[in-house]
Amino acid sequence: MSAVNRMEIGRTRIAAVLGLTAAEEGAADAAGDEMEAAGLRVIDQVLAGYGHESLYGPIAAGVDRLCACPPRDRALKFPWLQRRFGGDGYLRSTLELRHAVRRHHPAMAAGPSIAVLGDCGLGYFRAITRGVIARVAPEVRILFGDAADMRSCMVAGLAGVIAHCSHEGSSIDLMALCQARGIPVVNTSYVRPLPLPRLGVDDHAVGRLAAEHLIDRGLRRLAVMGMRHCYSVDREAGFATAAGDLGLPCHRWTDPADGSRREETQRRWLEALPRPIGLFVPSDVHARTVLHFIQTIPLRIPEDIAVVGCDDDELICTMCRPPLSSVRLDGIRMGNAAYAILEGLMAGGKAPAEPLLLPPLGVTTRASTDLAAAVDADLLAALHFIRSRCHCRIQVQDIAAAAHVSRSTLERRFRSTLGRSPLEELMRQRLDLAMRLLLDGDATVGAVARQCGFSDANHLAGHFQQRFASTPAAFQTAHRAAAKPSSR
User: Fold this and answer.
1) Domain carrying residue 462
2) pLDDT for 269 beyond 70
3) Per residue, what are the HEC states of 137-161?
4) Are both 237 and 280 inside the same structural domain?
5) What is the pTM of this model?
6) Which of 75, 365, 366, 443 has the fewest Cβ atoms nearer than 10 Å?
7) CA nearest neighbour of 327 among 156, 212, 195, 460
8) DSSP code of residue 93
9) pLDDT at 378 (0 to 100)
10) Mean pLDDT for the stretch of residues 171-175
11) Pair (215, 276) in one structural domain
12) 371 phi-psi bin (left φ>0, alpha ψ -120 to 50, beta other)
């Protein structure tokens, strides 16, 4: 095929990618340079209208396909590229097009860019991304992608990167690439201990919270099924510590180092567990698999094994059968804090000396731990009454009546099983409800106090400060700011 024919085929493909009409394409054949002018108009319209490089993806995809056809030394040449963007006018790749447009198009030259990289399939990372978006100034452009996209994000004007570095190979590549260009990186993952400024979850607190959730269901036997990741190890440790503080046994299973005979060893371990028992799996992704595996043995969920995961990925948790209870992580606040650190680094500041660890928000209860069978039916009845009526002005005597026991018996069983009094449990449930209302709604602190069984806002504030080390108003303001969409 001659170079002329190749050029004609190339122009036809570009015309299709640019969405030119038959009349415009015909004019290009007749007028020679008209198609290049039409192509320039399309790019101008897209960028002027939206100012975001991802919206000329169809053009870029067509360029990639087109440039794969001829050898590099015969790449297509368009005079309008040379006139508009400089260079030699040859169109060799999508990235070259992106760089050219970013360097010279007014809509793309207003401010710096940052890249947010991670696995968008994870609900926790999506929450981090929302937190970043909420804090970024309108003039700052955000590029999204996973580790495989990192090179395409290395555009002119890139000022910083927020990355969820959970894969060793791509994370090291990203770190090296950014360090070579002097671009600061903030790591929001604790999976890989890289020498980068980082922040993450207080995984020890996650484990403790999961244990408390299962103990609150009256379970006196606990188990944890861990993985060979540092975050899992810390969550397991927190879980075991909480069990040990109450003198409860904790059965532990860890993934084999070589992964061999995993299903066989899991089956034997699960079948040998005493029942009823509460099981913590430190990741929703892994917990989904474990739930399915338990049902093939078969064991009943939650009657034989009550299961709680972590991340509270709504899509994963609600699609499990039964739906999975899970520890909620504060991804929005994580994104907020990650950008605050990156902003300081981009301004020439120093990285924090220690990683920032954020506590979990609570546990979302679903069917996998809903009133699991336990040795003390009266205690379960009391707990159910507290959870369902904590918003009312109930007293300890009302709880004892609902459980059909005397107040002294109720106090003794709560102390021996949960390590706290019925009144302390009632306060825990009221404060958890108050936190959810402050996070999810627009009600005033006074209204929240009344909806949670407190006499007034001051009554709520005193207990809230003691539990969460923050006033209700400050807590609500911080999370509203993180969740509020920016005016981008």
Assistant:
1) 377-483
2) yes
3) CCCCEEEEECHHHCCCCCCCCEEEE
4) yes
5) 0.62
6) 443
7) 212
8) -
9) 84
10) 70
11) yes
12) left
